Amino acid sequence: MARRTLYNKIWDAHSVATLPTGQTQLFIGLHLVHEVTSPQAFDMLRERKLKVAYPERTFATVDHIVPTATHQRPFADNQAELMMQAIEKNTNEFGLKFFNFASGRQGVVHIIGPELGLTQPGMTIACGDSHTSTHGAFGTLAFGIGTSQVRDVLASQCLAMDPMKVRRIEINGELGPGVTPKDVILYIINRLGVKGGLGYVYEYAGDVFDTMSMEGRMTVCNMSIEGGARAGYVNPDDTTFDYLKGREYAPSGDEWDRSVAYWRSLASDRDAEYDDLVKFDASEIEPMVTWGVTPGQSVGIGQALPDPERIGDEGERNSMQLAFRHMRLKPGQRMEETKIDVAFIGSCTNGRISDLRAAAEVVQGRKVAEGVKAFVVPGSMQVRVQAIAEGLDKIFTAAGFEWREAGCSMCLAMNPDKLSGDQISASSSNRNFIGRQGSPTGRTLLMSPAMVAAAAIAGRVTDVRRLAAPQASA
């Protein structure tokens, strides 16, 4: 079993008891809620006449069902409006902080947590959303949970959890031009598989992560769950502390210095022991594109699609054959030149300011290809304000992109932003499951924001490295 890792240190510090089942009763330091997985949990509290145990540790926002064309109330979708009313009622009744539109801090839950400084090293974090693993970028143990567990955390601030193994994933060397954190995590999932992380927490390490920005680390940790891992993290360092300093909920003054000293101590020891160690060479990673119906079904942009007949595992082979039928692709062909209908930049994976900057750099001075619907959805109201201050909105609209309000948008089919028919979407989101973006026959290609921008301009999947240097604005 792993020893002296960040996982062990945080787990031990938050362990309340060992339950008769062998599970650990784990105290949760920060609980984030949104409008989709919380209504039933609050109703369960009412049925049992319970209060929220630690209301100061729970923070709420609204993101999944929010229309991004306008935030005007009431929402056109009656169900969405009812869910909005429910979270307004629940947070008010139970005395919880709610980052709504009026606060100016609404946004995707996994974006606002870090940007407000709520997410801090050494925490255990839970949220009724699978991509809670995002927060591991700060050196936390962050878990996605179901509605009944949301109830448990509200009522007791604890979860019953099974201990996990730790796999260290080292990527050493230097990434090549055009290769982004999104490509890194797609490459890891491709190599280890969508089930490769079952029972594990992933520790990301090596040269690539040492030099990666916080927003890049968040992108990687965000998709740990797509590789089957229960959580993923990066050890906290100066990059982490520089990001957090001065943020609204971050410590300040003498408390800041004490916190940083503690946070440093949490990093895995040099002689830490792991249950597994995997090493990759950064030079082997190129811009990645998914071709199938799981995040693991991907290729480097310069590679040919695999042949299912060469796969020994029957389940894997059947999954690939299903993917080829649904996507209307063939083994041996290349993704480059695949035409797209929609280009979506946003989501909890890639809706941060650095993502928007990278995409804007590609589209500046260019035009979206005829017939392509392209839109940009900032991950939070604060990201949107910052992007406008930098003039990114004008770059996008001049190129033919739609500029939207903050929300989850086309990452999932719980709001008006959906694919129709068999449209193909170049998407910076995290899942390419059948029906994920709203149409049972729609097709999703996951890639980095820069690659999505390049596809929007070309009207087809293209290697962003092939584009000429960004053009001057007209």
Question: Could you explain the architecture of this structure?
Answer:
The chain is an alpha/beta fold and 474 residues long. The chain folds into two domains: 6-266, Aconitase, domain 3; 288-466, Aconitase, domain 3. It has 16 helices and 19 strands. The strands form five sheets. The chain has a five-stranded parallel beta sheet, covered by helices on one side. A five-stranded parallel beta sheet has the order 17-16-15-18-19. A hairpin with a 7-residue loop joins strand 13 and strand 14.
Record keyword descriptors for this entry:
Aconitase, domain 3; 2 domains; 474 residues; five-stranded parallel β-sheet; 16 helices; 17% strand
Q: Residue-averaged pLDDT, rounded?
A: 96
What does the radius of gyration come to?
Answer: 22 Å
- Helix-and-strand structural type: alpha/beta
Largest sheet: 5 strands, parallel
Determine the number of helices (DSSP H or I, runs of at least 4 residues). 16
Give the full name of the CATH homologous superfamily of the largest domain: Aconitase, domain 3
Fraction in helix: 25-40%
Overall shape: globular
User: How far apart are the first and last residues' alpha carbons, in Å?
Assistant: 59 Å
Walk across the major sheet and give the strand order.
Answer: 5-4-3-6-7
At the first level of CATH, what is the class of the largest domain?
Alpha Beta
CATH architecture of the largest domain: 2-Layer Sandwich
